[in-house]
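JOB MANIFEST
job_type = single_chain_structure
chain_count = 1
residues = 261
[input]
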Amino acid sequence: MRDTLEALDAGEIGVSEAESRLAGYATTRAGRFDAARERRRGIPEAILAEGKTPAEVAALAATAVETTGRALVTRAADADAAAIRTEVDGGLIGRSTEAPPSVDHDERTGTVVVHAADFDLPSLAATVAVVAAGTADAAVAGEAAVVAREVGATVDRVDDVGVANLDRVLDQRDRIREADVVVVAAGREGALPTVVAGLVDAPVIALPVSTGYGLGGEGIAALSGALQSCSVLTTVNVDAGFVAGAQAGLIARAVDAARDA
């Protein structure tokens, strides 16, 4: 506590970072940011942009970078990314370094990742394969990939291998088998996770996607199929790319720890 107060008094850290060190969270005008999430849970706190104003998203991102060295924003619109860039350009997002933070906005996945210049991304000796059935499933799969990468896993994207032509997944099975954990995103009837889970010996996480229409559309059939799978797999909610990526990242952390041991 004394070290933190002395650093604050000397101007080496700001109020938000001091609060996060002492309380585990930092208070902003948009809410409280859980700066201790990664230390406590093994995965970084994510800022859900949906339901927030761009100004609120940018304020939380600024606090995230100040207290943890990075910000991970999901379900971000162009306006959210623009507000974050404005804060970076105005010097309101940064740490005690002369170089500005990097901002990576992926419009397809709806993610924004901000890294302070002195931030070191974790590196795990584990690979997560993120498999997408079709192009329409790539956005949700991409969100999972971003999250797993931020946890520190090596991510291998395998796209457009839907079951309408089994040859597409069969000619990628050796590649998928090399992964330590597999996330499979599929919409419509959601058959691909079951197929992949029958081909590999790694944990498989089914990620139902809200593609498809009519009876069972909007991911309902894909979710039901994954829950009823005769292959052994774990299922997350419809379009829950963050959850799938985070869970895969936690498994990757356990694999990494086992290899170190």
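[summary]
The CA atoms of residues 177 and 201 lie 7 Å apart.
The longest strand covers residues 127-132.
exit_status = 0
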